[in-house]
Design a protein that fits this description.
- The protein is of the alpha+beta class and 382 residues long.
- It is 37% helix and 16% strand.
- The chain contains 12 helices and 16 strands.
- Strand 5 and strand 6 form a beta hairpin.
- The two termini are 33 Å apart.
- It binds pyridoxal-5'-phosphate.
Length: 382
């Protein structure tokens, strides 16, 4: 086995990108982005309604093979609204993973509900159905109207697994377990646009799915997101709730509940539509990049994290697994010092002040990954 020093890695990445300052993930605009944006400005329909919003929603629904997609302002509010529509009420509890971006847990807190952190699988880095089942069997009582936490007495109304770096978690098993326990599933598919599991799209397994089109995701609308569902009535409610719950009328302002202004502006939808045309292009380029990384690290002590079984990946972010935290820190320090933006995986949620007291299981796998995973620059090269 070759020793792989950080300088070799830095030189390799610089040679691949043919530049000296390399970001973790930059957007790419090589298609109709400017054209659609100018069309939007010329039309004056830059705000919360317009033809690009409708087109975007149609295309997301087609891409994810779901019956309804609703464009929203960002991925975080897509999660919040999805949870609300899945029936999460204040004082409820929601099962999720601690190894995630903070927005996952925050969206639960915005509803005044509390997360419970369940461990992840090592290969998918997403919520583990085995750990989920164990937690439910040991800590939860199934009653006629749903599942209740024996320790707190509170209702567990939803489970929100996350598809880490676009890898798919074992979502079919998770849905099956949650069905048995009368728990709704919301997929945090923020990172997984275009990924599939056993031939089915991310965002189509749970009652609802939430996507992000933030600037660092595989495609971007500047800021933006989408809610997907196969339940048309729920899809209509998502549109209503994110449109200030306004009752349609020619001129009257009537709102039938507490709604939100979470709409996706037509200006952002225009950018999203142009980016959707580039998704396959982006993905092909990132696949080539991933394979280059694999070849480079082959037979070294550094392992590129490989695509888990059954995942048809969108190749969003390539990650490596280092031997221990010390090696991880050296790698991060050296690469960043030399102009290569590498990043660790997220700090586990229960280390953050807001989530210190949250109930959790062993977190053995989450802690193992937290100490060792580093993301490499993964922008498409077009
Ligand atoms: C990006 C991201 C979000 C939030 O999306 P925004 O559009 O930035 O609000 C939520 N969850 C995960 C896992 C993400 O990566």
């Amino acid at each position: 086995m070759k020793k792989c020093n950080v300088d070799d890695t830095v030189n390799f990445i610089k040679s691949v990108y043919k530049t000296d300052n390399i970001y973790l993930h930059e957007p790419r605009f090589v298609g109709n982005e400017k054209k659609y944006l100018l069309e939007t400005i010329d039309s004056t329909f830059v705000s919360s309604v317009g033809p690009f919003v409708d087109q975007f929603e149609g295309e997301i629904s087609k891409l994810t093979d779901t019956k309804r997609a609703v464009g929203v302002a960002n991925g975080t509010c897509a999660l919040q609204i999805s949870l609300e529509l899945a029936g999460v009420k204040s004082e409820d509890e929601v099962l999720t993973q601690a190894l995630t971006f903070v927005a996952t847990a925050n969206s639960i807190s915005y509803l005044k509900a509390t997360p419970i952190f369940i461990d992840v699988d090592l290969d998918t880095m997403g919520l583990s159905p085995k750990a989920l089942k164990e937690f439910l069997e040991q800590n939860v009582e199934l009653k006629n109207d749903g599942s209740y936490n024996k320790k707190t007495g509170k209702k567990i109304s939803a489970c929100m697994p996350m598809h880490t770096f676009g890898f798919m978690c074992r979502i079919d098993e998770i849905v099956e377990i949650c069905n048995q326990w009368k728990i709704s599933v919301v997929e945090d598919a923020a990172e997984a646009l275009g990924s599939k599991y056993k031939g089915r799209s991310s965002g189509s397994f749970g009652l609802l799915g939430a996507f992000s089109l933030n600037g660092n995701k595989i495609i971007t609308s500047g800021g933006g997101g989408a809610i997907t569902t196969n339940n048309i009535a729920i899809g209509d409610k998502a549109k209503h709730l994110t449109t200030t719950a306004k009752v349609p009328h020619k001129w009257e302002y009537n709102h039938d509940k507490l709604g939100y202004n979470f709409r996706l502006p037509n200006l952002n939808a225009a950018l999203a539509c142009a980016q959707l045309e580039q998704l396959e292009n982006m993905r092909n380029s990132k696949r080539t990049l991933f394979n280059k990384y694999k070849d480079f690290f082959h037979d070294t002590e550094i392992n590129v994290v490989d695509i888990p079984k059954n995942t048809d990946w969108n190749y969003w972010l390539t990650s490596i697994l280092l031997k221990n935290k010390k090696e991880r820190d050296i790698f991060l320090e050296e690469t960043n010092k030399q102009g290569i933006m590498t990043r660790p995986i997220w700090t586990l949620m229960y280390r953050l002040p807001m989530y210190k007291k949250v109930q959790r299981d062993s977190q053995k796998n989450a802690e193992y990954l937290e100490e060792r995973i580093v993301n490499l620059p993964s922008s498409a090269i077009l």
